[in-house]
Specification:
By secondary structure, the protein is an alpha/beta fold. The radius of gyration is 18 Å and the shape is globular. The chain has a five-stranded parallel beta sheet, with helices on both faces. The chain contains nine helices and five strands. The protein has two domains: 4-16 and 100-218, HAD superfamily/HAD-like (Rossmann fold), CATH 3.40.50.1000; 17-88, no CATH class.
Length: 220
Amino acid sequence: MRLAVIFDVGGVLVESPFLAAMRWRDEMNLPNEMLHIFFEEYAKVPEPGTEPPMWHQVEMGKATIEEFLDRVRPGLDGLVADDHPVHSVSGDDFNVFREAGAHWQMVHKVRQLREAGHKTAILTNNVHEWRAWREVIPVDWFDVVIDSSEVGLRKPDPAIWQLTLERLGCSAECSVFLDDHPANVEAAAELGIAGVVVGPDIAAALDELDETVEAMMRSV
């Protein structure tokens, strides 16, 4: 039996973008409220039929990072000095993957899974301008790469998992999904996909993945 193991990028295969954002905050000497302004829309779930938040549109390739920054800049007034460089921050400056390092334990697990005959995929909510993560890990180790900014869908929309499974040629019942955002793992579970929440302890997540794969293989 061949399984499909589907990996998120930030926080799973490479450093969490939120950790990188906190480093960026410290390097630019920004108050904590600043990160809230930049990331408050990330986990919002829009009501059906309503326009997605601007950040969601960026991750679905329907808006640019520069357009997003133009919209949030007015909210910076009063939080930092008028001459602070954050007022003129560019999309390249605000690239949380620019110096991201790989989680090599997780990357090597991808190789082991492939050697065992399983399929592997990437499923990421990402930004077109932040494609530098593809230079950090061996993308050709994955049978399928689904980037939200390329397909116009983002997690937790069930359609993005359905697209991933379709391209993999696998059923939900034969698939495992790893993500650092629990809500995404819960959404995958609603479709019948086994899930692993990846926290700071990468080794613990890998142990859980091994246990999950072994249990699924035994159930055949």
